[in-house]
Amino acid sequence: MKDLEKVNGAQLISFWKNISVGILVLILTLVFSRIFPFYFSPIIGLLAAAFLYTILYNNKVSRTSSCMVVPYAMFYCIIVYAFVSIILNVLDIWDFIRMPKEFSFFNDPYIPVLILDPICFFILLIIYIRRNRLAICIDCKISKGLSIERGKLGEILNVETRLQLLNLIWIFGLLSAVTWIYYAYFYFKGANVNNRDWYIFVWSNVIIFIIDEIYFASRYYNIYLDLKENGEIITEEELNDMTTKTYLRFYLICGNKVYLNTHVADPYVKGKFVTDTPFVTKRNVNGITISDVNGIIRRMTGYNTGELRFFYGRKSQDITKHRILRYFYFLDGKPEDYPELEIEGEWIDFDTLKFVYQKHPKSMSMIFLTDLSRMATIILTQKIFDDNGYRKLRVKSYRPTFDLVEVRDKEYDFQDDKWLRIAMFNSDLRGFHIRKWFDKFRRHTRRNDTNKKNPWQQSR
Question: DSSP secondary-structure letter at 270?
């Protein structure tokens, strides 16, 4: 499965473009606010936010696999800045508050960074804290898989997105401190703004953003070179020439034990061995029938009496011609009844496996860890919450469990992503009830609008 461990070079470049566009939009917002009359500043901000929203929407429609958290954060930074500046100016006009003229875009000079930099700092800080619970991140995890499931690219996106957010938080924190200290102690209020003032309030921000842009460009170019040198890059030409592949993974289960190999070479760390299923194969086909799958696992195990059941499958978002299908193969009786299997491995009790999963997850292969996480998440979520995300029992200390016998008897649907969404957003999380109320109100409003547009339905 080494093809799945490689990185699509175009997607790495796309990831760099995302932060570049976010920073570039912010630079142009500051520059245009300085060039055009000051009262155009909120309009410029709204246009910049609209441009970022278009990028986010196009990415969602096209279902590309690059991380969009930074453009998402910059969209909120600029839209909040535009509306805060408008609200402050309206309140000032109505004499509800008295603002210094540097905060009003109807006066000269208007200094937008005094509002923009602190807003960007707090918005980015909130998004960094909530990055695992953002709607855009939840949708990405559901549709494209967790970072560990996406191999090397998922690891890069996870680490680098966190780095980008921290980088921007520090930059906006520093710029906020510098501009406000200069405004409070060195800027002569009421006097004409000189070149030094504009350098601090506008061009210092622009210069730091440009330096940051150059830093990330060089960083991702070096990452690309390192991956290419290690043979971990798939070019567009290789993708076009690549044949369609279907990877099959089988989990052989008997009672409450699963057959695993504890000495599988880790593709990410040389010399390291991890635990994984030994029943893995590849077929250069786009589709495969269930009878063919059944024949494959019977030949691999040497036993024809097992029960084959579909676990779940996912098409690779990073290498579009590849997909992975997982299956259970349940054997009757006891593990002692099957002493001689064709492939090296050992029967491991599921309780032991759960202990290893909780205490030493790095001893498992990434894809095995992902599969086990999906199974546990879907089963436990169904036991704790109902279809609407509310707890079945109000006792939060309730911790259900399960075993492999239950997996066979209950016939859970692990392909359905519904329970993964509920696991990520349920009544145990803050803001759940408010969001549910808004969703209910929106559905009610949409239903009323539909009824008004359909007089035939009303007459009936």
Answer: T
